[in-house]
Amino acid sequence: MKYNKTVMLKLINEHRTLHDELKKLKSEMGLEKNFAVKALYHSFVAEDGPYMKEYQDLERLQ
């Protein structure tokens, strides 16, 4: 599975938890949006993360 910004942004828009985490990373850590999205991918999607299945489903639709 490979990181895809478009798919990740769709996933974030569909899940309020991820959206809140994105805002938190941007404000508390001072990360730019692109870096915060990548951090979410590695934390919540990659390597059997809790949102991996949803991410794969969105990836197939593209």
Would you summarize the structure shown here?
With 62 residues, the chain is mainly α. The chain has helices at residues 5-14, 16-28, 33-44, 52-61.
What is the count of β-strands? 0
Question: Which consecutive residue ranges, at least 5 long each, have pLDDT under 50?
Answer: none
Assign a percent range to the helix content: over 70%
* Radius of gyration, in angstroms, nearest whole number: 11 Å
Count of discrete structural domains: 1
First-last Cα distance: 14 Å
Number of helices: 4
Structural class: mainly alpha
Average pLDDT, to the nearest integer? Answer: 96
- How large a portion of the residues is in β-strands, by DSSP E? under 5%
Describe this structure in words.
The chain is mainly α and 62 residues long. It has one domain (5-61). The chain is built from 4 helices and no strands. The chain has helices at residues 5-14, 16-28, 33-44, 52-61. Helix 2 packs across helix 3. The radius of gyration is 11 Å and the shape is globular. The two termini are 14 Å apart.
